[in-house]
Design a protein that fits this description.
GO terms for molecular function: cell-cell adhesion mediator activity. It comes from Helopsaltes ochotensis (Middendorff's grasshopper-warbler). Keywords: Immunoglobulin domain, Membrane, Transmembrane, Transmembrane helix. This is EMB protein. This protein has about 240 residues and is of the alpha+beta class. The chain has two domains: about 80 residues, Immunoglobulins (Immunoglobulin-like); about 100 residues, Immunoglobulin-like. The protein has a five-stranded mixed sheet with strand order 1-8-7-3-4, with no helix packed on it. A five-stranded mixed sheet has the order 10-17-16-12-13. The termini are far apart. The C terminus is likely disordered.
Length: about 240
């Protein structure tokens, strides 16, 4: 729905996992003061015609037969003001984990990918320099285990972590109209890493106690030396 605010652009993602027919409609809000606008539909920069209209709405019907039909479709309404709406037709996104996965040596790392729609297939990769290495086809199963929790949920486990296992991992879902990826970052810490702040505090306390003890000994020695010197002065 377009409100008629000058220069405004509304955007909407439309996820298309498989070939289908899609209808996209731009509709003016009843309170809009944009009257009798000139309407243009575009796919990227190419102008296309709308297939139906009412006094306040304009619709295009698309047959999405392959990935070439995906992309951005825009309706532009021009009058005294100009408003537009963009529909991004794309392969469904899959959910991963944005924040790094922090683990420790010897532990297990677990990564889970979810899709709103059921993909045809799942795959997992790890980054080796600039290349992606397929985990399910190349790497040992005693180290990496892939589990299908359901049609739209897939899980990767890395067992007995070492520092060599840290890096970037990807899960990939394959749909009829294309593929979608999610990124994971795995960080592997030494088992002693959590103790470092504690060790630092203990070291600082030890230094402080040593300084205090040395200062007290020094003060006591000065005090005893001063008393002897005072007694000698009295005798004189």
């Amino acid at each position: 729905i377009l409100t008629g605010v000058s220069g405004a652009t509304l955007e909407k993602n439309v996820y298309v996992p498989s070939p289908t027919t899609v209808e996209l409609t731009c509709k003016l809000d009843e309170t809009s003061n944009l009257k009798n606008p000139q309407v243009t539909w575009k796919k990227e920069s190419e102008t296309i015609g709308h297939t139906s209209k009412t006094p306040n709405s304009w619709t295009i019907q698309l047959t999405i037969s392959d990935s070439s039909k995906l992309g951005s479709y825009t309706c532009i309404l021009k009058g005294e003001k100009e408003v537009s709406a963009v529909f991004h037709l794309q392969v469904p996104k899959i959910e991963g984990k944005e924040k790094p996965l922090i683990t420790y040596e010897g532990d297990k790392a677990v990564m889970i990918c979810k899709a709103e729609y059921d993909p045809k297939a799942w795959a997992w990769y790890m980054t080796n320099g600039t290349e992606l290495v397929s985990i399910d086809k190349i790497l040992p199963t005693e180290k990496f285990q892939i589990k299908k929790l359901s049609a739209n949920v897939n899980r990767l486990e890395i067992l007995k972590l070492t520092k060599q296992d840290r890096g970037i991992y990807w899960c990939e879902a394959t749909f009829d109209l294309g593929k979608s990826k999610a990124r994971f970052e795995v960080r592997v810490l030494s088992i002693t890493a959590p103790l470092k702040p504690f060790v630092a505090v203990v070291a600082e306390v030890a230094i402080l106690l040593t300084t205090i003890i040395l200062f007290e000994i020094y003060s006591k020695m000065r005090g005893e030396g001063g008393e002897k010197e005072f007694d000698q002065i009295e005798q004189l």
